[in-house]
């Protein structure tokens, strides 16, 4: 009996020792985990600490994977977007020539026929010319040798000279002179040497879509009503065919050519109206930027700079803005009055003012600009 009590007491003492040892180890592990957490937190804060960090920097860091994905998708699908633009534009031109032009020649007066032929072909030539030039013209890149430039910074990504108004394109992986943005529909950057081509393409494409939408409104209404009538007659024909016995399928109410004609007119009007709204808004946006002498990137930079100087009681002045009218003359390359015809209303491959490396006062500017950023 005593031996059993001794054995039971020994077992209980062993269990108590194990429990104490396990509790000590558990507390020790918790203390080690807490120390590792504080140490990792301190290391992370010491590595990421920056006195200039704000909400915008944090948001950009969070969206960095999204930017990477967009950059790579845009880089590889640029050719697809260009082919899509060419295909859609070609389909509209084919519908106009095959379906609408014969109808215009049969029903319109000679004066209206001359107007449509002249304006339509002029608009088409301007669209094709500026789109081709926007795709094939290089936006401009700074030279790699720093000896050729003075007063420039160094790009952090390509470690190369970075003149004023130059920005790095993550899709092209190069610095671009006076960069506005990378356009996937051009598969090219919009910069110093092709900015005018890009804006002119947007403008004339918008005008062409508006022209097609207004000119084809009556045809669209008739074609839409005809399609609805086709659906109704087709439904009635199927109901009659279900109640009667035919050895052959009844002939269609409308021919294939009639169906194709009406659907093509509806397709033309819907596509042109949609593009006119979307591209028209983009064109107005860029027109406002050109009026202020800014690019899309510079708008965000100038906005932050304006807010920063406003807190100090100063006023921001854009050093690259010469006034609304002069900004347009510099952008379009209008030096003399006849250039409004030869360089704006007609296809012209003339180069923009300046080299994109320095920004001297153009000869077409009538007044001096404010040389200071803030006063």
Q: Into which percent range does the helicity of residues fall?
A: 55-70%
Rg, nearest Å: 34 Å
User: Separation of termini?
Assistant: 103 Å
Major β-sheet strand ordering: 1-2
Mean pLDDT: 83
User: Would you report the number of β strands?
Assistant: 6
Shape: flat
**Helix and strand composition category:** mainly alpha
Query: How would a textbook summarize the main sheet?
Result: 2 strands, antiparallel
Give the H and E element order.
HHHHEEEEEEHHHHHH
The portion of residues forming beta strands comes to: under 5%
Low-confidence spans: pLDDT under 50, at least 5 residues?
Answer: 371-375
Structure description:
The protein is mainly α and about 375 residues long. The chain is about 65% helix and about 5% strand. The chain contains ten helices and six strands, in the order ααααββββββαααααα. The model is unreliable at about 370-375 (pLDDT under 50). It is found in: Membrane. Keywords: Acyltransferase, Membrane, Transferase, Transmembrane, Transmembrane helix.
